[in-house]
Each structure stands twice: as structure tokens, then as C-alpha cells.
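Assess the record.
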Amino acid sequence: MTVKYRGTETEVRALSTYVKLMRATEAVTTRTNRHLVEAGLSISQFGVLEALHHLGPLCQRDIAKKILKSSGNITVVIDNLEKRGLVARIRDAEDRRFLTVRLTSEGERLIAGIFPRHAEAIVKEMGVLTEAEQLELGRLCKKLGMGSTVE
């Protein structure tokens, strides 16, 4: 679908590109995360489990940074994972205000079983692009993510 907006050529091109980016993101996310729904996990919950699986125990602030969520949102996500017995919060012995989150054995089993399927789904999705196209898309996404330095 093209943009119906009748602005300048620059505006129409930018809006059209943005719409394509968002539609592609939504489509790829939906296809690559079907197995998460089957496991009863949200994308955020999977992100927490994946971060802990690959990085080890982390404080909530570091988890939030890793998966690009607010500290308030990450608290709810971790609360729900803790209720399911997938993660545990550990208080620091010297500073009781400081909490570290770690996977439980059940959480480790779940993420270890799900992650290979997740990686496979992403490889399949990215397989529609050549190696050069994947590298270029990665470069462009990084550039876009860094934002404009011109004000």
C-alpha cells in the first residue's frame, strides 16, 4: 500500500519507507514468535529468559536495558516469570536494596528448549535475503537506530 499523503516528495518517500519498515517488522515478528505463544510467553518474557540464559544473572535495570523495556514494565514481566517459577530474585547480602534475577532450573530448561527453535525461525526469515543484503540491512538498521545527528 502506498502512502496517500500528498506532501513533498521527501515526506511521501519517508512515510512510505516507514510504513514498509513497520509492516515488515510486524510480519517477521509474528512469524518468528509463534513458538513463544505456544509456550505461553510474551516477547518481553522471552527476552528476559534469553538474556539470563546467555548472560547469566543480572539486575533488573540491566535486563531492562538489554531488552529495551522500561524499569516499570520489566518489574511486571519478572513478577510474572517468578510466579511461573522460571526466575528467582536474589537479594544482595550487603545491600538489601539490590536484587539480582537468575533463571531457575525450570526456566533454564524452558529457554534451552525454545531458543534453538527461535534461532531457526530467524535464520529462515532472514534467508529470503542474501548474505550481502542481510549485512546491508543490519548496517541500515543500525544507522537508523542511531538517529539523526542533525537538529
Q: What stands out?
A: The mean pLDDT is 90.
